């Protein structure tokens, strides 16, 4: 399982032989592999005008590209705002509330994220193929898919320590811009252009997994809520800044405490454990049918 940002082919469909060589080294002769692009084919095509684009088929003959469009940025933020507004209106009848919930499309985003992660996991597990995931910058929906795919496939990621390592590797060190994406909550009147609840969407998907597989995750809902709170407002430095370079320049590790150090104190750790947990070495395949995706009430 690999992740990257988009290739910078541009409108003239430039080649990057270093990229071609790098992806070629992980494949045996005649082996097939998959590129999962988290943009629609149209969005990927439009990205060429800004210098981005997709891998030319002629230059990557062993790779098959699959487009699975996942919303990011303003559309996802607006979806979450509509969800919060619907849940905050006590005057709604049940029918109207269900209509508002459906029109928010939040659960559709949850389903799309889980479906794409399952696709990546199936390519790895059932097709025994290499998988490269990318969208545009590779720091939003890309991380959403790779992190969920690892939870589905790898039982070590479902332990408390393993899940912390997954977050550190796939979200923090990989450069998800927490400062830009989590500047304000959905109930705030000020809405920045860069805000988007990608990390919350990931936590919601993890909750869906924990609900469908109540014995397979060592941690419970309380940990997910604590992570959400700390991503938006925290006494710790774990989610500060937008990338490792900014954290290094701001000396975050030297001047703040780690959230993980607090979570792993024995008296705190007990609060976040799932009492039903039993190690499950198998792959967990979630259902993404409409009746299986439920609203996370928190």
TrEMBL record:
A single GO cellular-component term on record: cytoplasm
The residues the entry assigns to the signal sequence are none
What SUPFAM superfamilies does the record tag this protein with?
A: (Phosphotyrosine protein) phosphatases II
> Pfam families recorded for this chain?
Myotub-related
The segment(s) forming the Myotubularin phosphatase domain are 1-298
Q: Which GO terms describe its biological process?
A: negative regulation of autophagy; phosphatidylinositol dephosphorylation
Cited PROSITE patterns: PPASE_MYOTUBULARIN
Which Gene Ontology molecular-function terms are recorded? protein phosphatase binding
- PANTHER family for this protein: MYOTUBULARIN PHOSPHATASE DOMAIN-CONTAINING PROTEIN, MYOTUBULARIN-RELATED
Q: Which family does it belong to?
A: Belongs to the protein-tyrosine phosphatase family. Non-receptor class myotubularin subfamily.
Q: What is this protein called?
A: MTMR9 protein
Organism in which the protein naturally occurs: Nicator chloris
The organism's taxonomic lineage, starting at the top: Eukaryota, Metazoa, Chordata, Craniata, Vertebrata
**Coding gene?**
Mtmr9_0
């Amino acid at each position: 399982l690999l992740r990257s940002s988009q290739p910078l082919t541009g409108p003239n469909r430039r080649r990057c032989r270093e990229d071609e060589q790098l992806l070629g080294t992980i494949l045996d002769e005649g082996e097939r592999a998959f590129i999962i692009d988290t943009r629609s084919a149209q969005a990927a095509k439009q990205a060429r005008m800004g210098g981005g684009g997709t891998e030319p088929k002629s230059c990557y003959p062993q790779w098959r590209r699959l487009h699975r469009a996942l919303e990011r940025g303003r559309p996802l933020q607006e979806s979450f705002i509509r969800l919060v507004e619907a849940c905050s209106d006590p005057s709604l009848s049940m029918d109207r509330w269900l209509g508002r919930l459906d029109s928010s499309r939040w659960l559709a985003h949850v389903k799309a994220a889980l479906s794409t992660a399952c696709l990546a996991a199936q390519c790895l597990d059932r097709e025994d193929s290499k998988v490269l995931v990318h969208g545009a910058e590779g720091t939003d929906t890309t991380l959403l898919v790779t992190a969920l795919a690892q939870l589905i496939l790898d039982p070590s990621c479902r332990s408390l320590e393993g899940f912390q390592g997954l977050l550190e590797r796939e979200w923090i060190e990989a450069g998800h811009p927490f400062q830009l994406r989590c500047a304000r909550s959905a109930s705030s009147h000020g809405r920045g252009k860069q805000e988007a609840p990608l990390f919350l969407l990931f936590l919601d998907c993890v909750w869906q997994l924990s609900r469908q597989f109540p014995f397979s995750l060592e941690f419970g809902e309380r940990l997910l809520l604590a992570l959400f709170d700390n991503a938006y407002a925290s006494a710790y430095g774990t989610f500060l800044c937008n990338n490792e370079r900014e954290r290094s320049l701001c000396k975050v590790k030297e001047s703040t405490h780690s959230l993980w150090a607090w979570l792993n104190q024995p008296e705190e750790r007990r609060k976040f454990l799932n009492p039903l947990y039993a190690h499950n070495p198998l792959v967990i395949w979630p259902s993404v049918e409409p009746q299986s995706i439920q609203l996370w009430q928190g």
